[in-house]
Amino acid sequence: MLSAGLANVQHTKTRKSRAVALLAEELPKVIVGVYTHSDTHHVAVVTEYGNPIADQKFAATAAGYSDLLNFITSHGTVSAVGVEGTGSYGAELSRMLTKEELKVFEVNRPNHQQRRIRGKSDPLDAYQAAQSVLAERGISTPKTKDGPVECLRILRTARTSAMKARTSAINQIRSLLVSAPETIRAKYRGLPTTAMITALARSRPSGHPADTEYITALTLKTLALRYQSLRSEIASTDELLQEILDSYAPLLTELPGVGVEVATQLLVTVGDNPERINNEAQFAALTGTAPVPASSGKPTATDSAKAVTAKPTAPSTTSYSPACNQTTEPKDYVAKRTADGKSKRETMRCLKRYVARETSAKY
Fold this sequence. Notes:
Layout: H1 2-26, E1 29-36, E2 40-47, E3 52-59, H2 62-73, E4 77-84, H3 91-99, E5 104-107, H4 112-118, H5 122-135, E6 139-140, H6 148-179, H7 182-188, H8 193-202, H9 212-248, H10 260-270, H11 280-287, E7 291-293, E8 302-304, H12 313-326, H13 328-339, H14 344-360
Helix pairs in contact: 6-9, 6-10, 8-9, 10-12, 11-14, 12-13, 12-14, 13-14
């Protein structure tokens, strides 16, 4: 009797699993497009043939994301989701969808020509995002925006702001000293920046608030203290950046000319999901060092491809000179390219590509 009961239970489970599998096969496959805002996200669902099914607006909150997920899955099996702005307004939504094991793509901004023809509205933009995913046009793999690389990006945001503020502070100090009374200028004339900042920070100006000399000295002291504070902030941030690099990318900083600034920028550009860059040629295109024809009239001339963003171009530019000066391999490479008849500009492009190739090998 017991064995018969177990057999019935097993038979029931088998029928249920078959029913679930059959139901999954019957559900249509759908593509989802999301147009994001700071407070709301508009979602559009289309069939695998591009026919519109439904669209709706959801709040950009945890509850809204849950309702959004229920909405898109209620129309069928979600093949892919195209999200506009995965690095900003759609960052948290992309993380949530990825955790649900859905395939998420970054969708470029809506086509301006289509906007002029059809007008501008959130439903149209959401449907266009879904159509872009369906046509595999203007899409890319989004950054995960998670893990140590995201920590590097956040720290670099604060560091960049502090660097700009420190530069502004020293420029203001030098500008004030140009027009300051001679009694003040004489004290700091000829001093290097570090010594001048230290002397200004230790000064003890006194006088009447309506006295120009006193107010000038007091303002210079304030700016010097600000400069020192920002310098300490930058140093503390660099220590944190170095600690992350030592733990997760120690080989990268071993390259000549690659320090904390260059290494962290490269890692932030690539992201936590390096599969976005499948080979060193794609990495070279990202940094703006890939060769492209300079013109149709001179097919033998080449130029550098434009970088995807301006930031990864800087590391390739700042690191190739130290690499050339510190090691013999780049020098031999430059000599070889020059002997091949390359111009100086083409040789520098080749050298930057060489640096990109060596750098990508350390990821």
